[in-house]
Structure formats: structure tokens, C-alpha cells
Amino acid sequence: MSVDTARTSVARLLSELAFDLFDGSVPIQPLGLRYELEPVSGLLTEEFLRTKLDGCPPGLITVATHRVTWTDSAGVSNVAHAGALGAVVPIVARETTLALWRQLDDGRLVHRTASLSPADTALLADVTTDKEPLAILRTGVDAAARVLVQHAYLAAWTPYDDPAAFAAVLRDSGLFATVAGTWHWGLQAATYRRGLIPAQLICFGGRVNYSADTVAALRAMKELRIADPSVEQYRALGQGERPRCLAHAPQTVDGRRVNLVTQVADLFVDTFIRLLDVVELTADGGPSRSESAVSTTTFEVPDMTCQHCIGTITKAVAEFGVAAPTFDLETKRVVADFPSPAVRDQSFAAIRTHGYTVVPLAE
Q1: Cβ atoms of residues 261 and 78 within 8 Å
Q2: pLDDT tens-digit profile of 194-252?
Q3: What is the distance between the alpha carbons of residues 293 and 263, in angstroms, rounded to a whole number?
Q4: What is the pTM of this model?
Q5: How many CB atoms lie within 10 A of CB 335?
Q6: What is the distance between the alpha carbons of residues 271 and 47, in angstroms, rounded to a whole number?
Q7: How many Å apart are CA 126 and CA 169, to the nearest integer?
Q8: Where are the alpha helices (DSSP H) in 22-87?
Q9: How far is CA 218 from CA 49, 243, 276, in A?
Q10: How far is CA 56 from CA 81, 82, 177, 215, 217, in A?
């Protein structure tokens, strides 16, 4: 089976597993959260431009104005960035993610996954980074949150100065699907962690779209990434084949037209807007953790979201002779055995070099 055929089969398989999981309305409840907000600068470096944003003019990149830290309703530490719309966007986007994740845990997906044939299970494992359907769909929901949070850095250049109106216009303009179809694999995660977005928006007729320069830059970055022999995800592509988001292609399931990207975006924005009315935020109360403990081997990486993140962190610490850590993507916790405080500090620095945040936990 060719790579393209395999990905097409997996795309249909995911649609069959999840075709109705994003229907209806997600239960929400009032909650109060505290956060810390601090100005940021210097997020865009020459090395990052050269290694991750090759093909993108620096003038096309918008940098967030503030860094936000908080503990969400699940007790997990978070780090994100914000622009003109403030901390409410990343915080409520995270709560929206948690709400949609709970929706995925209602038993339907578990039952359908258990009914997969061995061949389908093996196909998922061969084609996808996250091997289990639940992990794949959770990553997709998290990607929707990133689209909203990152594009909110650009809100000051649009007429939409309200989080609900901004989220709605992104959905109505099809920006969630645009990201799925035009950004190369890994670009969103790498730029999100650093509080950057390589895009500009134009507003017309009650919609927002990418500028022509943005479209050209995204195409150039994707082509360069595909041609890079060191990028494992694209090595197996045949001549003329192009990577496609597995959730982007429309499918027909039991006579129903299904597009998972659109379904997730619609439910995400609807839930986000509803949560804006019931989440009460208070500044200056975010998590405070000390990084001075020498013996720390358990730490949190708030911006760790998927198996790719796990692979990156594992490789970063392996350079210092550290065995593969254990990871919990849900709590964002990592446990590693460091042979010395010096190696621990070097490992933390290496993880941060890749754009991740390290929050040690005192033991």
C-alpha cells in the first residue's frame, strides 16, 4: 500500500470512528481561575528563523505581547501567550479543550476502537504519530485551541476586539480548515510554544483571510520542509505526493457528509463562546513553583501536547546520557533519572532550547 493510499484509508477510518462525537452541545459549568501575566520580548531568534521558519520573511511574523501562566480546572499547570485580547483567550481555550476531551470519553470511541480489526489497528500505528484514536482526536482538539490562541495575536489588526466575535469570525471564515490544509506538520506546535504566528490577516466582507504574502510564505515553508531529508514524517512520500491533514478531507459515513476539522472547529468555537460567560478570571494568582531544588526528577512541561513532543524531549535529554523519561500527556508531567544536578540543569536547558517550558516540582 502506498503512503498516499494508507493515509487515505486512515482518514476514512478516523471519520468512521468519530463521525458523531462532536455533535450537539458540550456540558459546561461556572468556574473561577487565577493567572499571572507578564510582558515578553525576544521570542523570535535568528536560529529559530533559520531552523524552523526557513522561507518565511521576518516581517510577516507577529509576536505575542504577554506570557500567561495558570493552573486549569483539571489541576494542570499551563503556559501560553496572549496579544490584544488578553489572557482570557488562552485560558478559556484550554477549558474548552478539556470540555471537548471529556466529550470524547463518553464510551462511544472506546467501544468503536475495541472493534477495530488488527489490520486497521496496525494501519493507524504505521501512519499516525499518536497511535490510539483517542490520542489522535485529543491532539486535534488541542490543535483547534492553538489556532484560536495564535490568531488572537493578530486581533489588534482586525475590527474584532471581543474574544467571542473574534472566535466566531475565524470559524465563519474557515481559518481552522485553512491551517489544517496549509501549515506544514510541526509548524503550529513550534511557533505556538514561542508565542509567534507567521501570518497576517486581511478583513473583507465580514470575513478574515490570509494575506497573499502569508499564503506564499506558508507554501514555501511547506515545500522546504517536504524536501528536507532529515524530516522523517515526509521521507516516505512518493514523487508528487503531498502530506494532507487526516481530518481535512470530507468523508461520507452512513450517508452523512463528515469533515472532522469543520466539526471540531464548530463545536470548539461554540463551547468557547459559552464558556466566556461562565469563567471568572482573577489576575496575579498563577502557580508559583521554585526551580532551585537540586534533586528534582519530576517536572512539568505545560506546552507538551503529543507524541512528537515526547520524542523531542526524549532526544534532548538523551544527548546528556539520560535514559528515556516517562511521560503523562494529560498531567503534563515528566519523570527522569538525572545522574547529577549538573546534568539535570543541562537537560532542562536543552528542553527549553526546543521551545518548551520546564516547571520543576519540589520533592
Answers
A1: no
A2: 999 999 999 999 999 999 999 999 999 988 888 877 666 666 666 666 666 777 777 88
A3: 45
A4: 0.82
A5: 12
A6: 38
A7: 37
A8: 46-51
A9: 13, 14, 31
A10: 21, 22, 21, 10, 5
